[in-house]
């Protein structure tokens, strides 16, 4: 998957997962407490609009990138809008639209099923790709769950902060082997009644060059 510009920092995780050389894999039995929290969060993310903010930290915990986007999730599909960029997926195909360059790159959705831009789908099918472990419930009501990848990735775990009562995903942290982190913060939730188009409309944008990378 090709990053159209630096503003697509949201794609760091997808790109890195595709090129990872780490051989770590995790196996183990199901954690019932973790499973309950993840299933609740996945259901909450199946039909929602929200704001997603990404902060990228280097190995010394220094912030090196920050970006926010408005996102729609609907049953495995999503549309992410930020500045002059949009990332659209119908669950099978991903369109990366750079409005300023008048280009849209077309890719297949990762066959690994690990797409951090689509946490609802990731959580709904987590057991195929991760071993989940309940860590604790914090005083603020957040359930902390760690997910360790079963196949080679460039990170050793994803840590989730899920509201115990509502099931709302508040934060997702990707912990890298070099101690760097990607922190996704979710806010401004609007639930239900999510409509919209989850494919790029070439007829409506005839001046946009389509770069098919499938």
Concise account of the structure shown:
The protein has 214 residues and is mainly beta.
Helix-strand topology string: HHEEEEEEHHEEEEEE
Give the count of helical stretches: 4
- Total count of strands: 12
The average pLDDT value, as a whole number, equals 83
Largest sheet, spatial ordering of strands? 7-8-9-10-11-1-2-3-4-5-6-12
Outline the structure in words:
The chain has helices at 12-19, 32-44, 119-124, 126-129; strands at residues 47-57, 63-74, 77-82, 85-89, 93-98, 103-108, 130-137, 142-149, 155-163, 169-176, 181-191, 209-212. By secondary structure, the protein is mostly beta strands. It is globular. The N and C termini lie close together (9 Å). 34% of the residues are buried. Mean pLDDT is 83; it is low at 1-9 and 11-28.
Detail the topology: elements first, then pairings.
Layout: H1 12-19, H2 32-44, E1 47-57, E2 63-74, E3 77-82, E4 85-89, E5 93-98, E6 103-108, H3 119-124, H4 126-129, E7 130-137, E8 142-149, E9 155-163, E10 169-176, E11 181-191, E12 209-212
Describe the structure using short key phrases.
214 residues, mainly beta, 12-stranded mixed β-sheet, 4 helices, 14% helix, globular
